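[Protein data]
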Amino acid sequence: MELSQQAAEPAAMETAAPLKVSLTEALENKELMGVYELCDVKAPSGSLVYVNHRGGDNSKPKLYLFRGNGSTHDEEMDDDGKWIVSADKNDMATNEGYIFSTQKDAEVPTAAGLTWEEEGLVVTEGEEAGLAWIEVEAAANKEKRRRLIQMLFIVTLLSSAIPAVALGIGTDDD
């Protein structure tokens, strides 16, 4: 009886894996932000793998969040156990990616106190933060497009007015 109780204790200590996590607030690599869903595939390290399907946009590659397995692509970098974000599923075998956690001991990417090499990156459980971040980014992009259109309109007006003035057309001197 004591053996089965001892065997049950470590399982109870394991951190429950969230079904969805959100990556938000990064100052760089904004294209890697968003909602990642837990999938049934395991990384070579045996860890969980989360996938960002990019809102179903098949023209963009899926993104992967996984835990490194020690077979690093860079001999100077020790990626064993670090959480990694990548745009290529094959990167899981070589621990390549774009964003890395700084610690190696977190069972889940949302672990309390887990920090990332990407300045400002926040990883939270659930999808609310990721969806809110996507909406804010979409609004910012819409505002950028609106300003660009205004600028192009002004340039078009100015470029059509300059030749007429230069030729003296439409002046009171006629």
Residues 128-166 form the longest helix (39 residues). Confidence is low (pLDDT under 50) at residues 1-14. The helical segments are 2-13, 91-94, 128-166. The first strand starts at residue 20 and ends at 24.
